[in-house]
Design goal:
single chain, 4-stranded parallel beta sheet, 269 residues, 6-stranded parallel beta sheet
């Protein structure tokens, strides 16, 4: 019984590993749209079309539930997909929900009015498309008041990570943190709003300083998915575990193995 995990590239492997660790008896099908990555610099319509095509591929593989591990897809496409495209017997979930649950210390099913929370100054590091969508701020406003969110578009970081150039990625992270701090000198919390960024969590933490709480998504998504499946066991689909890519399987496999430091073998989607 398989659950789909989608990302524009390799970043979603951080989420894939976390959900596999949390739910070892569940089969997962991972799809990387490597041929069209990165999504973070594309238009909202382009992201929507590409995300729908990828999710349909996972539906065709027997997945009744798909996790959009890509923050850009979650921000730019998810709401539109849920309102007008996703079939009634399928579900597509994003990765903002667990993050906002953790930040506001309330469950997503809690529909009481927004209230004051412990954190007032939040830094959001994300792709340009995620920042432009303002999806994180919109969803947060449903749950909390009085939270100042300063977003920093982190151009180039995803490309550097996908290319395996961690020295460049480190330099870019520190540059983007410096830019954020010029706008918000003393953030209390930082959201790593891209699934690639957990690989640079230590660099973000070092640049931000020890007093800033850094929220990374992978483990939060694992816990949230386990809770969702307890409440919706019917969404366990069919199929067997696989890693699929729209790019060159050999090249993506090499990069994924380097990315996770264990052997990962992709097949053509």
């Amino acid at each position: 019984m398989a659950i789909g995990v989608f990302d524009s590239g390799l970043g979603g492997l951080t989420v894939m590993s976390a959900v596999q660790d949390r739910l070892p008896d569940v089969e997962f099908v991972y799809l990387a749209d490597s041929a069209h990555a990165p999504y973070g610099v594309r238009t909202a319509d382009d992201i929507y079309d590409l995300t729908c095509a990828a999710v349909q591929r996972l539906f065709d593989a027997g997945c009744d539930l798909v996790i959009l591990a890509c923050n850009t897809a979650s921000a730019a496409a998810l709401r539109r997909m849920q309102e007008s495209w996703v079939p009634a017997d399928k579900r597509v979930l994003g990765v903002f929900v667990p993050m906002i649950e953790a930040l506001t210390e309330r469950q997503w099913g809690d529909n009481s009015p927004p209230r004051q929370v412990g954190v007032q100054h939040v830094a959001l590091f994300a792709t340009p498309a995620t920042v432009s969508s303002r999806a994180f701020q919109r969803e947060l406003a449903f749950r909390a008041i009085g939270v100042d969110v300063e977003a920093q578009a982190c151009g180039g970081v995803v490309d550097a990570i996908e290319d395996g150039d961690m020295i460049l990625a480190d330099a870019l992270v520190r540059s983007h943190v410096d830019a954020l701090k010029r706008k918000m000198p003393e953030p209390q919390a930082a959201i790593l709003g891209c699934t690639h960024y957990p690989l640079m969590q230590a660099e973000f933490q070092d640049a931000l300083g020890p007093d800033v709480s850094v929220y990374s998504q992978a483990d939060l998504v694992g816990e949230s998915l386990a809770d969702y499946l307890e409440r919706h066991p019917d969404k366990m689909g069919r199929g067997a575990s696989a890693y699929l890519t729209t790019g060159d399987p050999a090249q993506v496999s090499r990069r994924a193995t380097q990315f996770l430091r264990r052997q990962i073998t992709f097949e053509a989607a």
